[in-house]
Specification:
- Keywords: Signal.
- It holds the Pfam family Cu_amine_oxidN1.
- InterPro entries: Cu_amine_oxidase-like_N, Mao_N_sf, WG_beta_rep.
- By secondary structure, the protein is mainly beta.
- Among the domains are: 109 residues, Lipocalin (Beta Barrel); 110 residues, 2-Layer Sandwich (Copper Amine Oxidase, Chain A, domain 1), CATH 3.30.457.
- It is built from 2 helices and 47 strands.
- The strands form 12 sheets. It has a 5-stranded antiparallel β-sheet, with helices on one face. A 4-stranded mixed β-sheet has the order 2-1-13-12, with helices on one face.
- The longest helix has 8 residues.
């Protein structure tokens, strides 16, 4: 885990864009069951689906199969004679009959927790089972009535070309690109013949390769550099929405994009209006409604109106995560201790740690005696380790170093994956990139290799382990160049 504050840009060539909402369509048969559609918000891959609704039948959440499959990037085939539905994504197939309690998954018979049914003239399927069978995660937030479904496709490499596998390591999109980058909100940036464009989770070129540089979509817009050298923000259809005139422009976060002219930073909105004037010596993304900025050499936080929400009194300040912002207090020798402020500017965790890292999955790694422990949002130590280098928790696992090799521990501190790798990256959506010698692999949460990892577009340093030195100063956001 690096102590250096993550760059404002989420990474070169990582993109996201809106999934196209699909109208619910029936197979043209009468309903044998009925259920009222709920008011649940359905979020697939980070975007709300306006054409997809849920129904609760006998306590099970169901979705109409056609729009659900389309949102997951899965194709649907209906066999009228047998009333059989076949779902296909890459090399994975799921075949089932209405009202049957069994299905064929890649030809193997498996028991279903709930059967597919007819409802309002369409085939409806149990949402959790179908999502997880195709490698997606699914969760319901009852407080906000939001059903969140996250597809999990990962770049892999074969014969010097790159494509995508699911979390099981099965090929979903064939290796055909010079570069393939992670999906976010339904689209991924790919490179063909030196130009960048965007594909959807079906592998369809939504925006043809045409850009010299391309960055991740955020708030429905992505920053690109065109062949003539001009920068622009485009929408999910590739239409130019804004043409910035600043020295540097950055991704949107929570409705605002960071921009710079000379030595000063400010923020613009989706219409290009400068809503927070250029006045800060350093500035970063908004997160939880707050952004870290530098004023007169010190760091604090502003809200989305530009008002100072937390006074600039810190040596360094880092993005809010899990409701808390990592800050470094002023020290007599210039290297102050680390603590965590809440949105009200109160130190929820006192600044007393020699090293500190941002919260992830409710825990933050801290160190005072050369080895790391993990604290909760109250500053209570909930997990002690013997390791000098550790990583943040992702997918319930955190990296650690022992004897020059890297592995992963679980939230109980138990070794879940033995330290056999020369370097590792954090788990993300079920898989982690690891390196042994010169070979990069994708492993699952059990440590099993599922595919050869795609080479990164830009060479990165050894991934998650933390250095034994104090964190470096908050970095200036990455420029809009490679």
């Amino acid at each position: 885990m690096t102590n250096t504050r993550p760059s404002v840009r989420k990474g070169l060539l990582i993109a996201a864009a809106a999934l196209v909402a699909v109208q619910i369509a029936s197979f043209g048969h009468a309903s044998a069951a009925s259920a009222a559609a709920s008011s649940t918000i359905i979020n697939v891959g980070g975007l709300v689906q306006t054409g997809l609704t849920t129904a609760t039948i006998k306590g099970v959440t169901y979705l109409s199969v056609k729009p659900f499959a389309a949102a997951l990037g899965v194709t649907v085939k209906w066999e009228q004679a047998t009333k059989t539905t076949t779902l296909t994504q890459g090399t994975r197939t799921v075949k089932f009959d209405v009202d049957a309690k069994k299905a064929l998954v890649n030809g193997k018979s498996v028991a279903l927790p709930s059967a597919a049914i007819w409802n309002d003239g369409a085939v409806w399927v149990p949402a959790r089972y179908i999502a997880e069978t195709f490698g997606a995660t699914i969760g319901l937030d009852k407080a906000t009535s939001t059903l969140t479904i996250t597809p999990r496709l990962h770049p892999f490499e074969s014969d010097d070309k790159q494509g995508y596998v699911n979390v099981f390591g099965e090929i979903v999109i064939a290796a055909q690109y010079d570069e393939a980058n992670a999906f976010s909100e339904g689209l991924a940036i790919v490179n063909k013949d030196g130009k960048y464009g965007y594909i959807d989770i079906n592998g369809k070129a939504v925006i043809a390769p045409q850009f010299d540089e391309a960055y991740d979509f955020s708030d429905g817009l992505a920053l690109v550099v065109k062949a003539d050298g001009t920068s622009a923000y485009i929408d999910a259809k590739g239409k130019t929405i804004l043409t910035p005139f600043y020295d540097e422009s950055f991704d949107f976060s929570e409705g605002l994009a960071l921009v710079r002219i000379g030595d000063l930073f400010g923020y613009i909105d989706h219409k290009g209006k400068e809503v927070i004037k250029l006045q800060f010596e350093d500035a970063f993304y908004f997160n939880n409604g707050l952004a870290a900025v530098q004023i007169d050499g010190k760091y604090g936080y502003i809200d989305k109106t530009g008002k100072i929400a937390i006074p600039a009194i810190y040596q360094h300040a880092f993005d809010f995560s899990n409701g808390l912002g990592l800050v470094q207090a002023e020290g007599a020798d210039g290297e102050g201790a680390f603590g965590y402020v809440n949105a009200q500017g109160v130190l929820a965790v006192p600044a007393k740690n020699a090293q500190g890292f941002s919260f992830s999955e409710g825990l933050a790694a801290v160190s005072n005696d050369g080895v790391f422990s993990y604290v909760n949002s109250k500053g209570e130590t909930v997990l002690s380790t013997k390791y000098e280098d550790v990583g943040d928790f992702h997918d319930g696992l955190a990296s650690f170093e022992e004897g020059g090799k890297y592995g992963f521990i679980n939230r109980s501190g138990e070794v879940a994956i033995k330290p056999t790798f020369d370097s590792v990256e954090a788990f993300n959506k079920g898989l982690a990139r690891v390196v042994v010698g010169t070979e990069a692999k994708l492993i699952n949460v059990k440590g099993k290799v599922v595919a050869k990892a795609a080479s990164p577009a830009v060479e990165v340093a050894a991934p998650t382990p933390a250095p034994a030195t104090t964190p470096a100063p908050a970095a200036t956001p990455a420029p809009a160049t490679k």
